[in-house]
Specification:
Elements lengths: L1 H18 L7 H4 L8 H55 L7 H8 L14 H21 L7 H34 L2 H29 L8 H10 L4 E5 L2 E8 L2 E8 L9 H11 L4 E9 L9 E5 L8 H13 L3 E8 L1 H5 L4 H4 L2 H15 L5 E6 L9
Parallel strand pairs: 3-7, 4-6, 4-7
Antiparallel strand pairs: 1-2, 2-3, 5-6
Helix pairs in contact: 3-6, 3-7, 5-6, 6-7, 8-13, 9-10
């Protein structure tokens, strides 16, 4: 019986093989798109749709995570490199008392808690106090690394410390956002990080590339304002009017000029608002002119010059608030001249195109003085920016 069943099955299998002729397989018909009833083509179209419906977010998260991880690895490299550059500069250029690594690592983890702004009344004074307290504290403790360091070296170490600290904070924040999104397996949570990362990387790369210029005491793009005013100060008597802020008094076209800039060639922006307050207290000022670098828009030419009104000064806003308050109380108009630059150009070694604008800007300042003042009046010209490598 079993032998009979096996024989019948074999005959049936041979008949099937005869019916299915594998040598005459029509692949064009199998993958034909003209026939909507073709089951294989239906699977080819339906399976990816099902895959993306149920797993599309995970696929997007995987692809996006790989790109973001590359950026985070770069940020980590910038963080480590800036720390090592700072440590090497301190060890190789300063006469340190003890091993500075432990102190530097402690400085890098410092943070600043801004005052409560629930009641905005007096918030600017609170912010100014907090920021200046940190600056004074940092200055004292950086000085303790090597008591014999001069003021230029002190400002350079401070700036390198700020760069390293900023890069470390950027890395920590971006990495935190990335790991949180991955932990929650949440693609919408990673989208904002994907959008802002190119801008973050641009600024981080600019800060990293600023380190050699700071170490060598070379001018930065942001120093175009102090450079112009510094040239106007040549052959003039200088005095320190505020912390790390230099003042000269001269004449132009029978006008009394007060020239104000950060005290170079150290890497500092000084305190121009305090200097202006002292000038205005002791003299009657008719016009204030401010010269600064400004971020250009995409499509604008680097080193282009623009004129405007208002206080041209960056930072967290306390210096500008103080300058505006002084000008308002004395009813002094403020004119501004800016040199357009990219983020990278502003905080890295000054380019030739930017430095070549100095004479043109100076002539525009003189023209502005003639047009907006009369003989016998007084003008304050402020060169705003980091004065690294720019003497007076």
């Amino acid at each position: 019986m079993i032998s009979k069943i096996g024989t019948n099955a074999l005959i049936w299998f041979e008949e099937i093989l005869i019916l299915v002729n594998f040598t005459n397989f029509d692949f064009d018909q199998l993958f034909s798109m003209s026939d909507d009833s073709n089951p294989l083509m239906m699977l080819v179209w339906i399976l990816p749709i099902i895959l993306f419906v149920f797993y599309g977010q995970q696929i997007q998260l995987f692809v996006t995570s790989r790109e973001i991880k590359k950026g985070i690895n770069k940020l980590e490299g910038f963080r480590v490199e800036s720390r090592n550059e700072l440590i090497n500069y301190v060890k190789n250029n300063l006469k340190v008392i003890d091993d500075p690594v432990k102190k530097i690592d402690k400085f890098l983890d410092y943070f600043t808690i801004m005052p409560v702004d629930m009641d905005p009344n007096g918030i600017v004074d609170k912010v100014r106090h907090t920021v200046r307290s940190r600056e004074d504290y940092t200055r004292i403790h950086v000085k303790s690394l090597s008591p014999k360091m001069n003021e230029v070296e002190l400002t350079q170490v401070q700036t390198l410390l700020e760069i390293a600290s900023s890069l470390q904070m950027i890395y920590k924040i971006i990495n935190h956002m990335f790991l949180t999104a991955k932990k929650q397996n949440n693609y919408p949570l990673i989208l904002p990080l994907q959008m802002i990362l190119p801008f973050i990387m641009e600024q981080a790369e600019a800060m990293k590339e600023a380190i050699p210029a700071i170490k060598n005491g070379q001018p930065l793009g942001d120093g175009i304002g102090p450079m112009i005013v510094g040239k106007m100060m040549l052959d003039c008597k200088k005095e320190t009017v505020a912390l790390e802020t230099s003042l000269s008094n001269t004449e132009f076209a029978n006008r009394n000029l007060f020239l104000l800039k950060a005290e170079g060639p150290g890497s500092t922006v000084g305190r121009p608002a305090d200097g202006l307050e002292k000038i205005v207290t002791e003299n009657k000022i008719d016009v204030i002119i401010m010269i600064d670098a400004a971020l250009k828009m995409e499509g604008e030419d680097s080193a282009s010059i623009s004129q405007g009104f208002g206080a041209a000064i960056g930072g967290i806003g306390t210096e500008r608030f103080q300058i505006e308050a002084i000008a308002t109380s004395k009813e002094i108009p403020i004119f501004s001249i800016v040199v357009k630059q990219s983020v990278k150009e502003a905080i890295t070694l000054m380019t030739k195109e930017i430095s070549d604008t100095a004479d043109d800007v100076a002539s525009q300042v003189h023209e502005m003085i003639r047009e907006n003042t009369t003989e016998g009046q007084s003008v304050v010209v402020i060169g705003v920016g980091n004065t690294s490598g720019v003497p007076q």
